[in-house]
Amino acid sequence: MEIKVGTFNLNNLFSRFNFAGEINAINEGDTEVNISYNFTDPTRYRIRTFGGKLVKEKPAEERAMIASRIMAMDADVLAVQEVEDIGILRSFVKESLNNLYPYQVLVEGNDPRLIDIGILSKLPIAAITSWQYAVHPDDPGAPVFSRDLLEVEILSSSRSRRLFTIYNNHLKSHYVPFNQNPALGEEQENRRRRQQAETAAHIIAARMRPNSRYIVLGDMNDPTDSEFLSPLIDNSYLGLVNALTQPRETRPPKPDNPMPTTTAWTHRYKESGQPAKYELLDQIWLSPALAGKQTDAVIDRRTKHGGDGSDHDPAWVQLSI
What we know:
The chain is of the alpha+beta class. The protein has five helices and 19 strands.
């Protein structure tokens, strides 16, 4: 049985309500138009904001681009990041993916921007476990995961057996607010990412046996050689195997200066006046019981430097189970 498993950061798949007025005509000589909206029943509407600003929906063109990439990928199981809520995920599957995935999972997590992680699957799903309330010993009074660690069991089509368990991640980013000290902020973010890696490793080790089939994947927000991911990806008990060491590309990368030196990258970042930087932030790690069953690894390469609908490129592996 051939199964394709992927990961894709959808880059703010929001569908927030915005209110706008349309003016068809202005009388000659008028220099000012005033429009007022009154909402008398707060139970009938909801406006989400972040940092004092209304967060807008993902533009239709970008939404169509990520949908096109997902359709072309045609993964059997797809881990997704940066999705507003389960309602948006379901409507995206129905309206943009032609109901490609009958099984959709998303549990509201901890992110203040309300971006969550989820799973789309053609295969039946069994147990779903959210670890959003897990804590780290260094700070037992607050959840350690910025979003969640989402554990999902994938079944065979007949539901007769569990094929594997997925652990979807979206670890702490490197973003430091402009009003914070950059060096101190970066130190705090790195510490938080290490704590998340340590906690994930502890949870997975407790849940899985040495011969268990499981996949650890998602947006790790650090390259594979990062010391802050090491507690998870270099954990001797788990023995995780990097499935994206030499992935194929769906197309050559767009000409750049410098060009990437490897195919193993999903994110490009370029500061003004600086050379482009390529990193494999979106990763797929296989348990030893699954590593020998991998037959392929692919990254869908973007056509624009900034990305096609997302600043991340989707990656997937083929498994023969």
